[in-house]
Amino acid sequence: MAESIVVPDLWTGHCQCGDHAYEASGIPNDPHLCSCEHCTRLSGAPAMAWVGFHRDALKWTGPVGEPTYFSTWPTLHRGSCQRCRTQLTSVADGSDMIMVAIFSLSRSAELAPVGHSYREEAAPWMAITLAPDPQRRT
Ligand SMILES: [Zn+2]
Ligand SMILES: [Zn+2]
């Protein structure tokens, strides 16, 4: 019987200009859309799409290393590229997860959202495509 080898799933991503790149391993957790006022304002779009990885499973591999963080709440920090302004990450104090903007991932098409946070604040014309909201998230 052939021995099976479990290879951890490796995900890679980067900002538009390439200053920031990352590798994340493991199973992506809770892919979801968010239409909170910060996600919509920061992105200029009706929602952002996020997915979580364990913080210690994500490594910055690009020439500039970690993105620059801006706190949208005192305990929530958004990482973006200072050159091209791509939104990359969201980190909450006390959490062992780092949220990654799904569309910064090279394989973004493989992750479909399982929920939509702040769906009640979403643009009304998104209503026909809203995913279920199993629980409200920040
Ligand atoms: Zn960039
Ligand atoms: Zn949000």
Automatic annotation (TrEMBL):
Lineage of producing organism: Bacteria, Bacillati, Actinomycetota, Actinomycetes, Kitasatosporales
Stored PROSITE patterns: CENP_V_GFA
Domain CENP-V/GFA: 11-126
Gene3D superfamilies registered for this protein in UniProt: glutathione-dependent formaldehyde- activating enzyme (gfa) (3.90.1590.10)
GO molecular function, one term: carbon-sulfur lyase activity
SUPFAM superfamilies tied to this protein: Mss4-like (SSF51316)
Pfam families assigned: GFA
Coiled-coil residues: none
Record-stated family: Belongs to the Gfa family.
Keywords: Lyase, Metal-binding, Zinc
Name of protein: CENP-V/GFA domain-containing protein
Superkingdom in the source lineage: Bacteria
